[in-house]
Amino acid sequence: QVTFVESGGGSVQPGGSLTLSCLASGSIVNIGSMGWYRQAPGRQREYVARISPTGDQAMYADAAQDRFFISRDNAKNAVYLEMTNLKPEDTAVYYCTEAPVRRTTYWGPGTQVTVSS
């Protein structure tokens, strides 16, 4: 099973930017579409964005539209999430994995993003 390790989180002020990275232990080409998800304290995990196998198509949750940008580098088995104009409600642990998720989907440790003044 391919595993994922997320990185790049941190603490930023509202309006700031962060770029998250996700490194897979194996080929993400074989997985297909990849996605980013997040879980805020006391809330269920939610979908943020997904990207097609070749990276030519991306989709976003309403909360991420026009602020977040998902990309992938299949040669590096990596997926990225560039986040701009961050808001306090973006505070969460962010995860990357396959899209859509399945009962057997692997979840990595995630990376914490905190947005506060």
How many DSSP E strands?
10
In angstroms, what is the radius of gyration?
13 Å
Class inferred from helices and paired strands = mainly beta
Coarse shape:
globular
Outline of the structure:
This protein is mainly β and 117 residues long. The chain has no helices and ten strands.
Question: In terms of topology, how is this protein built?
Answer:
Elements: E1 4-7, E2 10-12, E3 18-24, E4 34-39, E5 46-51, E6 58-60, E7 68-73, E8 78-83, E9 92-98, E10 111-115
Parallel strand pairs: 2-10
Antiparallel strand pairs: 1-3, 3-8, 4-5, 4-9, 5-6, 7-8, 9-10
Describe the structure.
Strand 4 and strand 5 form a beta hairpin. 0% of the residues lie in helices and 45% in strands. The chain has no helices and ten strands. The chain has 117 residues and is an all-beta fold. The strands form two sheets. Strands 2-10-9-4-5-6 form a six-stranded mixed beta sheet, with no helix packed on it. The chain has a four-stranded antiparallel beta sheet with strand order 1-3-8-7, with no helix packed on it. The radius of gyration is 13 Å and the shape is globular.
Which properties best describe this structure?
6-stranded mixed sheet, 10 strands, 4-stranded antiparallel sheet, 0% helix, mainly beta
